[in-house]
C-alpha cells in the first residue's frame, strides 16, 4: 500500500479529466441525439476519484457511459480491481461455490445445442478473468480444450492453476484475425458491457468461430425493473467499468447483422439474486469511513478504522437478512421483469 500510494498520487496530480474521451451528443448504437441522463454516480466499488454518467437513448434504448473512459482511464480504474491489491477479493467472489455452481449450470444449458457424438473441440472464453467458467464447463464437456482470453494477469494464473489450457492476453479485436476459424464455441459472460465497441466484439467472435460455431453471451439488462427502482445503487450499472449496455432486441439485431442466427434467448435464468443486498452494501460503504487504498492521499486514522469495523459488525445481520430477501424474491423477480440480465445463444452462419 505504501509503495503504491506515490504512484497513484502522481497519476491523480493532474486530475481525472484526462481519463475521459469527449462527451457524446449522439447514441453510439443508433446515432440518435435523443439522449437523457439515466444515472450520475461515483466509483462505488473501489472509491477511486471521479464522477460518472450513464445516458440512455430514447430512440433505441441503448445505455452508455458518457463521457466514456479512454484507454488511460480504463487502465487507471481497472488497476488493482481484479489483479494486484484486488486479486484476493476478486477470486473469493468469482470462485465462490455458488458462482461455480452457476457456471456449471450455464455450461449444461448449452449441451442440447452441441452434438453428443462430436462435442466441441476448442472453446474460447472471452473475458475469462481467472478462468472459473472454463473450469466448470470442462466438467460438462470433458473432451473439449478450453482457452481463455483477457487483458489482466488472471488469465495467465488460470493456466498455471489448470483451469484453462491456453491463455491469450490482449484485445480480442486485435487477436481475432490470428484466430480465424479456430473455435467451435466462444463465450462472453458479462464481458460485452465492459467494451467500448460491442459490435466490434461480435465481428471478432464471428472471425474466431468455425462455420456453425456457437456464440453464447450473457450481459446485464438495462431494462430491468430493478434498474429503475434502485437507481445509482443498482449493481449492474457498475461504474466506472461498464461502458455499454444494450437491450436484448438491439443485441439480437446486431448479431444477425454480423452473420449469426439467434437460436435461444433466456432472461429469467440469467438473473442473479443480489440486487437488494448489493445496493445495501453500496450504501453502507458510502456512509462508512473509507478503507485504506493508495488512491487516497493518506491512510485513515485509527479512530476511522475503529468506526468502520464497528459499523460493519453492526450492519452484518441486516446484510444477511437482505440477501435472504433477494433469494426469497428471486422466483418472482424472474417472472415480473426484475431479471437483471439476459442470455443470447447464436450460431455462426
From TrEMBL:
Signal peptide: none annotated. Transmembrane segments: none annotated. SUPFAM superfamilies: S-adenosyl-L-methionine-dependent methyltransferases (SSF53335). Pfam families: Methyltransf_23 (PF13489). Keywords: Methyltransferase, Transferase. One of its GO terms (biological process) is methylation. GO terms for molecular function: methyltransferase activity. It comes from the Bacteria. This is Methyltransferase type 12.
